[in-house]
């Protein structure tokens, strides 16, 4: 009976000791050598660019591994030869709404000091073009071409999927009293086309999906910038390459995106 009582009291005592030890360890951690773990929004597997276990940080510090961060969601605008208005030859690309979504899944970089780091990451990115016109793009054509349909589509979406590889240079301020920082990042990005898809929805035929590259740029490149505070921010991207290949009428049609980013 005595053993049972001792065993019953033992777990609360052990838990209290562990909590006390952890509190004491946190109190002895230098405030300016660790990053507040509450700011680590994104799950990361690998070496971080800070130490949330109370160890002293030494620079330069190499970091990298798997991650799920820099989640972008925003709107897109097509730029036709420097104008947001599409030329008469490209009116078939007129759209109700265009959007952009992407995130990073791996990264490797170098933090030079508490304020500056650079890193190379990779992830996926989708561009959605919700078309106004009832058209169906031709598959395997020599150029981007289409045929008009008699069906009134509720949805007509051209989607491109890219493997993105951005190179980022990031600056951040010192932490405020709440442990948060302002950040700014900019850099260059590249991407490799994985697939193109046209999704259609109508009352007559229901949902339809066609896969083809649709002469989407097989390799895209551009510039980007992010500004944020804590884990939230805003982003903008400008793709320098033409959106479509081997299509003279769609030459000089570029993509510009802007929106919110999470895990920055």
UniProtKB/TrEMBL annotation:
<feature type="signal peptide">
    <location>
        <begin position="1"/>
        <end position="26"/>
    </location>
</feature>
<dbReference type="Pfam" id="PF13568">
    <property type="entry name" value="OMP_b-brl_2"/>
</dbReference>
<keyword id="KW-0732">Signal</keyword>
<feature type="domain" description="Outer membrane protein beta-barrel">
    <location>
        <begin position="92"/>
        <end position="239"/>
    </location>
</feature>
<dbReference type="InterPro" id="IPR025665">
    <property type="entry name" value="Beta-barrel_OMP_2"/>
</dbReference>
<protein>
    <submittedName>
        <fullName>Outer membrane protein with beta-barrel domain</fullName>
    </submittedName>
</protein>
């Amino acid at each position: 009976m005595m053993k049972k009582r001792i065993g019953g009291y033992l777990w609360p005592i052990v838990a209290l000791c562990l909590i006390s030890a952890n509190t004491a360890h946190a109190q002895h951690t230098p405030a300016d050598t660790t990053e507040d773990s509450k700011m680590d929004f994104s799950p990361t597997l690998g070496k971080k660019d800070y130490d949330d276990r109370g160890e002293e940080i030494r620079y330069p510090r190499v970091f990298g591994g798997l991650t799920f961060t820099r989640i972008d969601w925003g709107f897109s605008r097509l730029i036709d030869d420097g104008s947001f208005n599409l030329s008469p030859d490209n009116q078939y690309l007129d759209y109700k709404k265009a959007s952009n979504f992407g995130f990073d899944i791996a990264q490797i970089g170098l933090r030079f000091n508490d304020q500056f780091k650079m890193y190379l990451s990779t992830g996926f990115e989708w561009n959605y073009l919700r078309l106004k016109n009832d058209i169906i793009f031709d598959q395997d054509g020599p150029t981007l071409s289409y045929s008009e349909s008699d069906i009134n589509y509720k949805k007509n979406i051209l989607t491109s999927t890219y493997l993105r590889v951005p190179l980022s240079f990031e600056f951040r301020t010192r932490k405020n009293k709440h442990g948060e920082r302002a950040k700014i990042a900019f850099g260059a990005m590249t991407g490799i086309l994985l697939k193109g898809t046209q999704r259609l929805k109508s009352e007559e035929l229901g949902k339809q999906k066609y896969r083809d590259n649709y002469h989407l740029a097989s390799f895209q490149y551009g510039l980007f910038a992010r500004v944020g505070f804590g884990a939230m921010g805003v982003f903008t991207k400008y793709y320098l390459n033409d959106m479509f290949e081997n299509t003279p009428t769609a030459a000089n049609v570029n993509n510009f995106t802007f929106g919110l980013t999470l895990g920055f």
